[in-house]
Amino acid sequence: MDIVTQGVLGAALAQSAAKKEHVRLATIIGLVAGVIADADILIRSASDPLLSLEFHRHFTHSIFFIPFGAAIAFLLLWPFLRNKLSAACLYLYCFMGFSLSGFIDACTSYGTYLLWPLIDERISWHIISIVDPVFTITLIAAIVIGYKKTSSNFSRIGLVLAGFYLLFTFSQMHRAEKSIIDLAAQRGHTIEKIIVKPTIGNALLWRSVYLSNDTFYVDAVRAGLSKRIYQGDSIKQFNMAETFPELDTNSLLAEDIQRFEIFSDNYVSQYPGRPEILGDVRYSMNPIGIKPLWGIEMNLDDTSQHVKFDNYRDASKVIKQKFINMLLNRTIKEERLSEDAL
Questions:
Q1: Structure confidence at residue 334 as a pLDDT band (50, 70, 90)
Q2: Is 154 domain-assigned?
Q3: Helix 23-36 with 87-99: angle, nearest 10 deg
Q4: 208 with 65, same domain?
C-alpha cells in the first residue's frame, strides 16, 4: 500500500491495543512504526537500477522480520519517550504498528516477500489497489475519533470495518476473474496464467491479463451490480531466447533481463513500437492497454551495461477519460464489449 495507508494502519493497530492513558502516544508510535518497513526503498544503487526493485517490499516486510522491525522503531523512539512510557509498553505499540505492514502489501498486486526466507518469492493476493481511499479513510476516521476521545474502541471498529472491506474486494476479484475465465473460453483460449487486479483507487474496475499460447490478452471488468467486460488489446510474451538468440546468457544484460522477468512474474513484453524496452504488462495507465507503466531500456550494442529502469506514464486526457468512462459503466469508443448479469 501507499506509505500513508501503511502509517494509518500502524496507528490504528497500536491505538487498538493501548491503555486509555496511552491512546494518543500509541497512535503516534504506531504511525511511525507502520512506515518503517518501507524504509527499504532507501536500498538502491546508482549503477544498478534494478537493485531497488528487488529489495523494495523484501525482507523488511516478512512476518519473520516483525520483531526486528518493532525493535528498530523502539530504538528510534525510546530516547524521546523513555520518560513517558515503560519499555514494555513502547515495544508493544511498536510491534503492533509494524505487524501488518507485510500483510497489507501482500493484499496488493505488487506483492511482498511475506514468508522470506522460508519462501523466496513475492506473495500477491491482488485484492486491493496500492491506493484505496475507502480503506484508508475508514482507518483515518477511526484513529482521529479515537485520538480525540482517548479511546481504543474506535480504532477497533475501524479495523473490523477495514477487514470487511478486504473481504468485499476479495469477492469482487473473484467475480471479475470468473468473467474473464468465461471470456477466454468463448475465445477458445486455454489460460496458462492470469492476474486480475483492481485499477487505481477503487474496487469496481478490474484489469485482467492472462497468457494463452505465448500471448497476453488484456481486458477489464467493471464488477458492479451487473458485470461489464471491456475487451482490450493483446501482445506477445517476451522470450529472450527467441528475440535475442545471439545474446550471451552470461552477459550483464541477460542477467538484468532475467531479474526483471522475476520481478514481473514473467508478465513481460516488448514496448509497442520500441523493441529496446521491456515492460511489465501487469500495469498500465489504460485499464485495457498494453503500454506498460514501467519497464527497462536495454542497450543492445553494449551487453556489459546495466539496463535503465523508467516509468512510462500516459496521463493524457484521452486515457483519463477512458478510465472514467469504464469506471462509470459507460461505452467507450472502438470497444469490443460484452455484458453479463448477475
A1: low
A2: no
A3: 50
A4: no
Task: Tally Cβ neighbours within 10 Å of residue 41.
Answer: 13
Domain boundary among 125, 141, 157: 125
Residue 339 has pLDDT above 70, yes or no: no
> Do residues 164 and 24 make contact, with C-beta atoms less than 8 angstroms apart?
no
Alpha carbon distances (Å) from 192 to 122, 175, 195, 209, 330? 19, 19, 11, 11, 31
Q: How far is CA 32 from the centre of its chain?
A: 21
Range of the domain at 40: 3-125
In single-letter form, the type of residue at position 212 comes to S
Residues 84 and 194 grouped into a single domain? no
> pTM for the whole thing?
0.92
Phi, psi of 210 (to 5 degrees): -130, 155
Instruction: State the pLDDT confidence band at 313, using cuts at 50, 70 and 90.
Output: confident
> All 3 cell numbers of residue 167?
473481504
Residues 6 or more apart whose Cβ sits within 8 Å of residue 77: 29, 32, 90, 94
Tell me if 332 is assigned to some domain: no
* Cell numbers for 281: 504488462
How far apart, in whole angstroms, are the C-alpha atoms of residue 303 and residue 325? 44
Q: State the helix-helix crossing angle for 87-99 and 66-81, rounded to 10 degrees.
A: 130
Domain membership of residue 187 (yes or no) is yes
Out of 101, 125, 149, a domain closes at 125
pLDDT at 147 > cutoff 50? yes
Residues 117 and 225 placed together within one structural domain of the fold: no
In a domain, 94, yes or no: yes
Cα–Cα distance measured from residue 183 to residue 117, given in angstroms and rounded to the nearest whole number: 38
Burial 227-246 (b: 16+ CB within 10 A, else e): bbbbbbeebebbebeeebee
